[in-house]
Amino acid sequence: MTSGCQGSINGARARYTLKIRTIRKMQIARLAALAILVKQRPIRKVTRASLCWELDLREGIDLSIYLTGYFQRRVTRQILANLPATNATFIDIGCNRGAISIPVASRRPDCQIIAIDPVPEVLNKLIETQRLNPSIDNIVPVCEFLSSNAAVTTSDVPKVVDASWNVFSRTWSSDSSCARPLAIGVAQSMSLDTLCELRALVNIAVIKIDVDGFELEVLKGAVETLRRWDPILIIEWAPGSLLSRGTRLEDLSGFIDRLGYRPWRIQLNGKVIPID
Fold this sequence. Notes:
The chain is α/β, with parallel strands linked by helices. 36% of the residues lie in helices and 21% in strands. The strands form 5 sheets. It has a 5-stranded parallel beta sheet with strand order 5-4-3-10-11, covered by helices on one side. Strands 1-2 form a two-stranded antiparallel ribbon. It starts with 10 loop residues before the first helix and ends with a strand.
């Protein structure tokens, strides 16, 4: 399991530090985009790491794939390292445009991948990338909003969620994430336990959660799945995003501890170390 922050973050000073760090990352990405003339030609079809992509280089995720071949390569490597070669299921919660699901699918064709995101705009990009790579046929796109509510409903689905990181944008929904909200549309709300039951998912080996503040709600709705299959959890969390949803970092880490999981951090060099 991985933390998106460097240790426990508390207080206004720490949140301010996170804000500055994130804004600097966006500024660096903007300079890189300007250097390769993204404003003149933002949409480009490329091949990276033997995969075909149609990328919008105004978006931070797409820009990372264009420049490095991957987005969060260390996360992809950890997923691959913990996935059995056959007869396994990987659930990618908050898959966005498939920046992690697509490379994992290409390397583990015998594994089933459930790619979940409530935003049709980004999920359609994943579907289009599958079309560009016909050999990838083991991804199941799911447009749903995961919560702690076991019942299938639309009553608790927000209208928008953070799902876009436009490097040229000057206004964000949150300074801690530098994200822009995108519309959810007609996605339903349900728990991961309900989704797994409805789709008869088995042999769940790895679950990745990147949902910008909704992590605790997702985990509360996944208790039975975690108890049954004991999967590896790979979670990106940011204190600013959690606080924007009314959740403290201590609430999330405490719940994870009660589930019996031990937290580790994936470092920039890809090594995994235990954390408090």
